[in-house]
Amino acid sequence: MSLFGYADDVVEIGTELGLKDAVFTGHSVSSMIGVLAARKASSMFGKLVLVGPSARYIDDEGYVGGFSAKQIEELFQFLEANHMGWSTQMAPMIMGNPDRPELGQELTNSFCRTDPEIAKAFARVTFTSDNRKDLAGVAVATLVLQRSQDIIASQEVGEFVNRSIPNSRMIVLKATGHCPNLSAPEEVIAAMRTFVA
To answer: What's the whole-model pTM score?
Structure first.
C-alpha cells in the first residue's frame, strides 16, 4: 500500500488542466501526495506548501513519527469495529482547541460523512506509508507550516520534513491542533502569502 496512486491522480488532473509552475498546497497526508506528485512532474509545480506533513507516522530506529506500530494497529482495529465511535472520539483530539468544541464537531461531522470502507482503506495507506526517502528528491521550493501542539504530526516530524527537502523552510504557527486551516485560517493564509508572493 502506498500513496503513489493518489499522486498519479494529481498529476493526471494537472496534465488535463495544463498546469505549469503551480503551487500545490497539501494538508496532512496530502502533503506527501504533493511531494510524490512534484517528484513525478516537477515542471507542473513551482512551489509546495505542506501543512502538518508527516513522512512516516510510525516510530523507527532514529526516527520519531509519533506512534508505535502497536498504537497504529489499535487505531485500525477501533476504526474497523466502530467507524462512528472512532470519528466521535478521534476528531476532537485531532482538531485540538478544546476551548472551541464547535471545531471538533465540524471535523467529527466530516469524518462521519465518509464511507466507512473508504475511510478504513485510506487510513491504512496513510498510517503505514513511509515517504522519508522521497523528500530528498523534491526539486521545488517548499514551505512547511507546523504547529507546536499537534498529536498527529509533531514539531519534530515537521522539522524532519523541513531538513530532508533541499529547498525548504519552516514556519511554526501560533495555531494549535492538526487542522489550522479550520482553527486559524487567517494565520495560515498570511504565512502562505509570504511564500507565494
So the answer is: 0.92
